[in-house]
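Support request, please re-run this one:
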Amino acid sequence: MSAPLTQPSSAPLAGDQGSCDPGDATFVDCAATAINLKSAARLLVIVMGEFHSEGAAASLTCRIAVDGVNSQAGASPGEETTDNTSLGATDGLGATLVTEQLAQGPHQLALRCSQPSAEDGRLGSASIAVLGVSG
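Re-run finished. Output below.
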C-alpha cells in the first residue's frame, strides 16, 4: 500500500478548455495550461474531450504532456470501420495522470492529439484540470 498524500495548505490549481482538429500524425495541443509550483510536488492531471469524425470512420491518438514530453497516459478515441459520431453524438475521452515529483517552478501541461490516418477526426470540448499534491 502506498503512503497517503498530504494536502498542502494552498494547493496550486490550473485549467483550460479548447478544441482541436489535428491534420496528421503531428501532436497538437487541444487544451493546455501552466502551473507554478512554490515547492516540489506531484500533479494530478485530468483531461476530457468529445471525439467526432467528419464523414468517415476516423480516430485520434491523445496523450497528456508534461513540460513538452508526451506521457503514456491518454486515449485513442474513434471508429475503425463505420462513422458513428457527429457533433450531436460524440464519443467521450477521459484520462488521468499523477506525475512523478516535479521541481519547484513553472510547468506546462497539455492534452495533445494527433491523427494517425487520413480520415478527419476532431476533439471538441477538450479540457485539462491540474491540481498540485504533495507526497
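The chain is about 0% helix and 55% strand. The CA atoms of residues 63 and 74 lie 4 Å apart.
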